[in-house]
Amino acid sequence: MASKKGKILIVDDNAGIRQALKILLPVHFAEVETLPSPVTLVSTLERFRPDVVLLDMNFNTSINTGNEGLYWAGEIKKMVPEVEVVLFTAYADIQLAVEGMKRGAFDFIVKPWDNEKLIEVLTAARDKARKAMGRDARSESGMTGAVTPDLIGGPMFWGSSRPMAAIRKTVEKIAPTDATVLITGENGTGKDVLAREIHARSLRSGKPMVAVDAGAITETLFESELFGHVKGAFTDAHTDHVGKFEQADGGTLFLDEIGNIPLHLQAKLLRAIQNRSIVRVGGNESKPINIRLICATNMDLEQLVREGRFREDLYYRINTVHIALPALRERKEDIVPLAQLFLERFAQKYHRPLSGLDESAKTVLESGRWSGNIRELQNVIEKAVILSDGTVLTAKDLDARSGSGMTPGFGPDVIPGLTGNLLHNAQEEERLVRKAMERTDGNISAAAKMLGVSRPTLYAKLKKYGL
Asked: SS3 for 33?
């Protein structure tokens, strides 16, 4: 047997299951800890720092209107993106599994489980997490904290379109420098993937890339998450905490959704960037930091500056080099090659005997509006691969898997013209948010999905517009 390594956290409300896994898993892993509910999950993640979380899908509490397992899987990936989540469900529901994968889950296990399969999945998840964290060996790209675990997070797919060719030339010029980069574009265009590509081509590639979803950090935790805190700084500060700036020291800090940072917190961020130093919450010592900063947003920052909702000095500080990623509809020649790439990767992942797309499928893909961009295309191909019975994907497969025989991405849960369009002026953005909330009768999970944003991002927008 291989030497034991890795830390596993089990979150399940069934005492019998926790006990059984407490007996089984220590044979294969160095440390195993259990929780009966997610109530103390956040503090346990901070203290225990697991490689993998085995997460039950349902609990007795009433955390949110949707499935608790999916909600907490998303929260874990936002808090500690490098930790892998394996979902634990009593129902072999393919659609539930797909939704879990979309939120960043590594895999899922169906109860009652097969011990050999369980160990195989948890071991693979552990190895991936430890590589990302640099616990076993330096990862190929030197990154930790990827924003999303999408398969598009592999090598950059440049395609053959003119807009992407121009961006590639720019990246080749600026990647070896320490220039601050601002990446803009609609949701789903791959801003995080481009950020990782810039880091991988930089002279800092052997150091960490730490990614932060700035729109998902609550105002009360903003300083602690970015700058860290000392023990005793506040009620739950039981130990010192190293913030994202320090974690990225020597490497790259990627701030996604930077347009969602409240105005009063922008000043604190600007101060840290200007001074190249931070002070932990509750501390007095100024700590120098050496980072390369990459920011991303789907919002029009110049418009926000004009409206007084984004600091002009911060905007110019983060905008040394501006790269605007095109929407997928602006690079149509790349749609089919991207779909083929996703098909191959998902066919391998789900062990499906699929070799390609027939002509009818290519026609459907090229005629799609793809308001959700590359992420939407990826999701449609993933669902089609999972549910297809043939050796090639057809138009029928794509239509059936995307909603109800409609153009891909425009099933009953999507409003055409909404997804991915939260980047215009504030008035238009508020109108879209209102419309989504009306269409979903106030269901935040459904509205966020409709708009193509995360739940925390939607919460921030609801608060901003007083909805």
From this structure: strand
* DSSP code, position 4: P
CA-based nearest residue to 217, from 464, 466, 453, 459: 459
147-174 pLDDT, tens digit each: 333 434 456 788 889 999 999 999 999 9
Sign for the CA dihedral angle at 340, 346, 349, 355 comes to negative
**Any alpha helices (H) in 80-144, and if so which ranges?**
94-102, 115-133
- Cβ–Cβ < 8 Å for 53, 11: yes
Residue-wise pLDDT for 386-395, tens only, equals: 888 889 998 8
Rounded to whole angstroms, the Cα distance separating 288 from 249 reads 9
Pair of tokens at residue 233: 């700084």
Q: Angle 69-75-81 (CA atoms, 0-180°, nearest 5)? A: 115
The residue count of the chain comes to 467
- What DSSP string runs through 45-78? HHHH--SEEEEES--SS---SS-HHHHHHHHHHH
3-state secondary structure of 453: coil
> What one-letter code names the amino acid at 246?
E
Burial 106-131 (b: 16+ CB within 10 A, else e): bbbbeeebeeeebbebbbebbbbbbb
Q: Which two tokens stand for residue 300?
A: 């029009």
